[in-house]
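Q: Please design a sequence for this.
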């Protein structure tokens, strides 16, 4: 059974930092792209950042310069370092993993809440 276990969410003041991690288990195929998405209340789920197996990264304009995505291929773990957090970063953050040939298998975590508030 495939599981994506996310951790690191919580409550932080504006300007603060949080670090998220996601450790998949049970995936039988090689992992390609790993990503973080987020969904604020009443809004659609949006892409935050992606990282390929070769380490190429891509970020949403709203988080460029503040968030950093990274991965440890030996542990099949993806991280999201979030700095200079803003109230508009408040959302449920979801881990996403694409695996198999051309990333045909798509897996999601259950999400972790990030709240930025004073």
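A: Design:
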């Amino acid at each position: 059974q495939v599981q994506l276990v996310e951790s690191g969410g919580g409550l932080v003041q504006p300007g603060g930092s949080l670090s998220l991690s996601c450790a998949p288990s049970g995936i039988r195929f090689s992992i390609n792209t790993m990503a973080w998405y987020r969904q604020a209340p009443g809004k659609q789920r949006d892409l935050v950042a992606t990282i390929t197996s070769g380490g190429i990264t891509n970020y949403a304009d709203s988080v460029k310069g503040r968030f950093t995505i990274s991965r440890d291929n030996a542990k099949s773990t993806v991280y999201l370092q979030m700095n200079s957090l803003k109230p508009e970063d408040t959302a449920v953050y979801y881990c996403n993993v694409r695996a198999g040939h051309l990333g045909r298998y798509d897996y999601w975590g259950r999400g972790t809440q990030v709240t930025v508030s004073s």
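Q: Thanks. Anything notable?
A: The two ends are 39 Å apart (CA to CA). The chain has a mean pLDDT of 95.
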